[in-house]
Write the structure tokens for this entry.
Amino acid sequence: MKTLKNILNITLPFVICFSNCNNEKQEREEKTPFPKEFTTEGKFRRTYRWDKILDEREEKYRIEKGLLKALAMRESYGDPLRLNESGDGGAGLFMFQPGTAEYCGLDVYGNSKRMGVDKSHGKELKKLIKENKNNYEKMAEIDERFDVYKSSDAAAKFLKRLYNKHNSWDKALSAYNRGQPARNSSQTSHVKFIRQYQDYYNKRDK
């Protein structure tokens, strides 16, 4: 596999391809910079770097095509080093809180066991990333929420567990976001955005 060092800045002008990926599917024009991070296209192109990995997770856990990818677009904009904007302690491609991450089998930096807001932990993570100069490989070793391989498997397994519990993907997505599904999960902005991203991703993923 190609090294991940220095390739994860969101302004990079290319999409990476792992040595065992489908080149025709994964290649993108190398001279075109990523669109701004808040646009749907920007979120898609950052997430697409992990397409083969996320494909494998969706197949392994029998998740709807593009749903896990859309969740990554929604949670982190496809950036595995992203921290929750509110500084609440959520981190990584799937924005796991420390307690939830440990529940899902990930090794987490620090002593926080909170499944909810933990501002102190959020500050620790912000400092840690700065000290390690946004180095993906170092951060993935320190905290597995930043490891795309491990965090994607944990997120897929957790999402499927929620689906089995609530018998609905929309309810599972809602519960992933808030602990328990909203009464009208399909009508919440969180689920609507993910469904829009799923449709966008699947149309682009040809």
In short: The domain at 23-204 is CATH 1.10.530.10 (Lysozyme). The CA atoms of residues 174 and 181 lie 5 Å apart. The chain has one domain: 23-204. The first helix runs from residue 23 to 26.
